[in-house]
């Protein structure tokens, strides 16, 4: 299978709510929640994409080339690329019910494909318990090689889910704290809510796993995340699905990097579509990226093989971008790469 | 009735001059005066809308949630939301003559619908006396629960209308001073004109009702409004219907807030279409908002029930936006909510 | 005749090269030289229009209204409005040969129409001698009430043409110095060229008439114009017809106003389409405006009556704009009117 | 043959991958590599074009005109215009295989046409040896009047090719160092790579010919180029074909001019389409320009005659632009020409 075939497959899936656009930029699906889109005007998704494209990079090929190394260590584990699949849950309500790809099958593609490509996939949670447990079953079937992402439920519910994750042998666990106002959950009557630092501290101290807080969009939020004892954050506006008209994640990244001061790992998602995008956010201080919707296309179009193929594609693009900007390793991707 | 049904109804009204666009942004109706549009190029209306959308907000859900309270007190009266229906008059000339919805029936929907939703509606005035008196009759039928808005007629005419309003038992009275050059009135040969501070002082001191000056677009104008003894102002460019190429209301809001220094209440209209827009202008210092054209759609599509439905819809959106930005009450909506 | 009829007429003229667009903004005719367009990309014309629209004005109707006075004195003559018809020559090559409206008939409409409306028209010059002499004949038939505009020919040729103008009894004479590279003239083999300050001094000292230099686009150019002894300048990029990618005239106006320091009269043309545009450039320091292409539509659609109608239309719009921004006379139109 | 005929010819070529757009701006062919386009989103090509158009120039025709002189000396040779054909190789893979115009025939048009017009053409290199040797054969047939451009191969390969160039009697030799990551070469398995200053020094000291480094996009890169002993650089992003989302060449030109401080000649390419564009980049400090894709149209549409015609066309446009901005010679084209 090549990438063209993968895209062709994805386009033919019956009832697939994603249009498999040539550019996954949030325009065609704007407002489609449930569905693949951003909330209301869709601008929070669209802006993620647009603001990345506004960033320009410095081409320079006068240097002594070395082999380009895209590998990194994160939370004590080695990865081939700083590229991870973002958690996506509720496959049937969001992507259609005719294709039969539920949270189990989707997670299977993600977890196995990322593993084959040398990275790792995040899995989701949602209105039904199975949106959490089914993906976790896939992780278990893959020796714990996945990162479950828990919604901000009541404390005891969160802690119960972390315990399930621990049993599955995962390397880390995450919470998408920005799901506090998620429409789909409100519709299902499941009580999620914002959480103060104290409650997050309680949760994080209840596990020995590295804990990742996803949905940080301000320096202040990052400082609060630091206080909670989290090992990392994901700068994310939930793909624009929880609040319209937020800034782009790449816009708030620099101030968050300054606020964190190296004391936590910083991942970022939001409109990252190419290896050059990965280079850009790493140059701005991120340690790695999460990619969401394109992985849905990869998984639907090629299952685990498609996910592996897509991950390697973005990885190779990152290598090319590093070559053209004089970066031999991820550490060498500094702010000098960005045109000011 | 739900919102979709309301929109469907509005679209089927015979001869309705409003196109019921998915986004009420001033583009389709540009130049349509009489009609629902902005004057000439329509840019003063369009810019109101666009500039609101350019404002980005800070998502933050790490905090101790409380129940969200959207209520406020204004001019001594309690309201459920800081959301009010703007005065609109001349329904037949502006919105068509085939549907039979005149100023009386329109005001009936607005006054009763807002009342049911826990807020209040402003009513209009215009080329014919009945554009003022018919809405006032509706207000009277609703125990005075409405705010009449008087054009800048000659002094004695204004004072006469205020007296009618007092008799109707209204909580406040307004004047759209920016109607001084309104085309429709010029066409009908009715003498409106700008008014100096002295004349406005005379008017305002002639009544014990709180007086609201609508159509302030500069800090200097706000300072003059303060001198007049007005209890509040509405930052408004009359929906772009009196002068082309003004700035957006949300652009001039901050400097007006600074000029007023808390000494008057500040309402604002102009392109406010969502609860998130309400949050944005409150964060910039407004005390409440007026919404115009979408209430026409609500009233035409669902009468008082539609107006109530629409008001609650925007109110619930405001609640959601407050939840996602860490604001438990209107007082907590500060400039920290705005992304800079 | 009303304006709608005028436009309707203009649209039906056989072979009229102007498309009579709803917005005369340089887009449809871009690159059409000969023809009505701007040179090459047409951006110098388009930018004139766009930059005017970017300027926003301060609505303020809290003031003691007086009757609005749009009159002015210029070069010792009284005018009803600060609105003049720009010189346009070569009607057949630029606007088509089927309609039979040559430079004589066009000038007749312009000169007579402007006179009736209380202003004055500029006339043109060009590749053929008759492009200068025929309009001058019209001016003579109207007691000298027109301002001929001479191309930068050789000295003796210019002086000869000024003498003809003096005999016709004109109140002033102009030169479009920016025609130095005009394509149409180059095609006709007529020697025009830039002129140094000395040559312009020689020309200007050869007449007692006020002399207006048209085609100034820099502060430095304005300073040189001052040295020549000119009585006034026209800030103009020749409607974008002599050089692509110049700034808009309204962009360079403020620095030219500063350089001139009140020592010459400053007129401006370039995309002025409404009375509000007139208010904007007067607020930025201009003494009056020239309007070009819309006068072609007015003259073709309604002859002298059309020109009078159009001039009054723009004049009334100026009055309305003054009313809404608190300006009782042209002197009161200051930079305070502009939103910053 | 005139230019219209040339364009008409080009449009009728069977299988020509270039669409011969009215504006050669990178939009229609975006992502077409191989093909005529920019890489991926094509934005690096498009931005070159757009940023040039954003630059505005100062019209001024009050000066003593002299005859306009567009000639210059470069690397000891006289040229009529500062306008050169950029190196383009791999004609069959990039522009189609049905028209039969290979690198030999293309170079013949370029080399002979530029020579006739009084300038010089650069030739290319590529995946196959003949992409270098065939153009060089044309140069030899024209008394060495061409500048071969060598890819960043291994040292011995580069030096071998320089020796071939020396034998052909060329006035200078170039290297497109930014081809270090060229997709087409990677596909053909040919080892190109970045080169450190030391390797470039070794290459440059191996020849007495002036050496031009093409593909400089940063001040730092220009400083490194200075260290290598190069006689000149070409500010270039390879027409957007080697890295997406670089800045435009005209954006980085000023800082490179500052870094070079007059110690090397500075050429530039990237979206230059008119004589006015040439004036703009010369005003910003460049010594001359390379033009790429439009020369393909000229060569395909008119062979050597077309190339001569096109070069003169751009040259005459440059003359006109100089006349309208008061520049009698290339030295007089200073930053004063640019509107700030």
Automatic annotation (TrEMBL), chains A, B, C, D:
Keyword set includes Flavoprotein: yes
Entry keyword Metal-binding: no
Cofactor: FMN
Residue ranges annotated for the FMN hydroxy acid dehydrogenase domain, each copy included: 1-340
InterPro entries: Aldolase_TIM, Alpha-hydoxy_acid_DH_FMN, FMN-dep_DH, FMN_HAD
Residues the entry annotates as binding glyoxylate: 238, 241
Catalytic activity reported: (S)-lactate + O2 = pyruvate + H2O2
CDD domains for this protein: alpha_hydroxyacid_oxid_FMN
Keywords: Flavoprotein, FMN, Oxidoreductase
Signal peptide region: none
UniProt-listed Gene3D superfamilies: Aldolase class I
Active site: 238
Gene Ontology molecular function, alphabetical: FMN binding; oxidoreductase activity
Chain positions recorded as FMN binding sites: 214, 236, 269-273, 292-293
PANTHER family in alphabetical order: 2-HYDROXYACID OXIDASE 1, S -2-HYDROXY-ACID OXIDASE-RELATED
Recorded family membership: Belongs to the FMN-dependent alpha-hydroxy acid dehydrogenase family.
Name the record gives this protein: L-lactate oxidase
Protein's organism: Geosporobacter ferrireducens
């Amino acid at each position: 299978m090549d990438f063209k075939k993968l895209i062709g497959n994805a386009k033919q899936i019956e009832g697939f709510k994603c249009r498999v656009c040539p550019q996954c930029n949030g325009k065609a699906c704007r407002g489609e929640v449930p569905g693949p889109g951003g909330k209301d005007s869709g601008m929070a998704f669209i802006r993620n994409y647009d603001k990345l494209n506004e960033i320009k990079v410095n081409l320079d090929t006068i240097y002594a080339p070395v082999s380009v190394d895209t590998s990194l260590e994160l939370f004590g584990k080695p990865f081939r690329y700083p590229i991870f699949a973002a958690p996506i849950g509720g496959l049937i309500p969001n992507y259609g019910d005719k294709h039969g790809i539920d949270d189990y099958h989707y997670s299977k593609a993600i977890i196995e494909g990322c593993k084959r490509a040398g990275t790792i996939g995040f899995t989701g949670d949602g209105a039904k318990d199975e949106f959490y447990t089914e993906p976790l079953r896939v992780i278990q079937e893959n020796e714990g090689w996945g990162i479950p992402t828990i919604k901000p439920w009541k404390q005891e519910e969160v802690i119960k889910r972390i315990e399930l994750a621990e049993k599955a042998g995962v390397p880390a666990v995450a919470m998408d704290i920005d799901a506090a106002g998620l429409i789909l959950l409100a519709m299902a009557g499941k009580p999620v809510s914002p959480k103060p630092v104290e409650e997050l501290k309680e949760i994080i101290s209840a596990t020995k796993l590295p804990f990742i807080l996803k949905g940080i969009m301000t320096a202040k939020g990052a400082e609060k995340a630091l206080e909670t004892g989290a090992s990392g954050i994901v700068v994310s506006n939930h793909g624009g699905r929880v609040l319209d008209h937020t800034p782009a994640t790449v816009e708030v990244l620099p101030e968050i990097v300054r606020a964190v001061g190296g004391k936590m790992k910083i991942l970022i998602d939001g409109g990252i579509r190419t290896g050059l995008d990965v280079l850009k956010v790493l140059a701005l201080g991120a340690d790695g990226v999460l990619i969401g919707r394109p992985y849905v296309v990869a998984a639907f179009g090629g299952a685990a093989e498609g996910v592996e193929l897509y991950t390697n594609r973005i990885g190779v693009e990152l290598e090319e971008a590093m070559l053209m900007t004089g970066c031999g390793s991820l550490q060498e991707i500094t702010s000098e790469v960005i045109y000011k």
